[in-house]
Give the backbone structure.
Amino acid sequence: MKHFIVTSPTMYKSKIKVIAFDADDTLWINEPYFQQIEHKFCALLENYATHHTLSQELLKTEIENLSFYGYGVKGYTLSMIETALKISNKTINIDIIEKVIEYGKDLLSKPIELIEGIEESLISLQGKYRLVVATKGDLLDQENKLKRSGLEKYFHHIEVMSEKTEAEYKKLIKHLDIAANEFLMIGNSLKSDVLPVLAIGGHAAHVPFHTTWAHETINHQIKHEKFNHFKNIVDILIHLK
């Protein structure tokens, strides 16, 4: 789906006190690892269905399971197992199930590769703003990735949400003891990092990543005075100054 974006040069006229960063594909690379595992999963089950059919069935199962497992590798692994059982009509060999579990563990142990320019940007912003991480996913996994990334020292607060809703952002802003218009959210998802923040009166900046999970895409235009789009994280520094 295409993203239609209208930027605003007046985005930072009001005083920003807190800058929140999404984690996956904003601080570090994440989605390409999932795509690599999905390709392996489809190859593993190619005797049962085409890669396209398997990918679509896996996505459908993932979305159906979000209310049970939430976001993250563990839920993804369970969704792969469920998809394998479904596609094979429960005839799948136990060796394949073991392989899928291995894929999940592989995802959890992937090296942390920082997004280009992110650490330099955090160094530049630290001390001028309160910096926080506002992400979703599995708590243990996200905490481990943040520690392994070496970026933990730059952040005042870490918030791992089960879902990025208006209510969750309101809770975060209340916890930070600021007004909504003093809050800026930076992330790669228009659906999760931009729309709910704008809806509650905050500022939002979209920094796209070259791959995005299908569930996070939107296909409508965003027009808002507190919204802007940047090619990379470093470009935001110019506007903040």
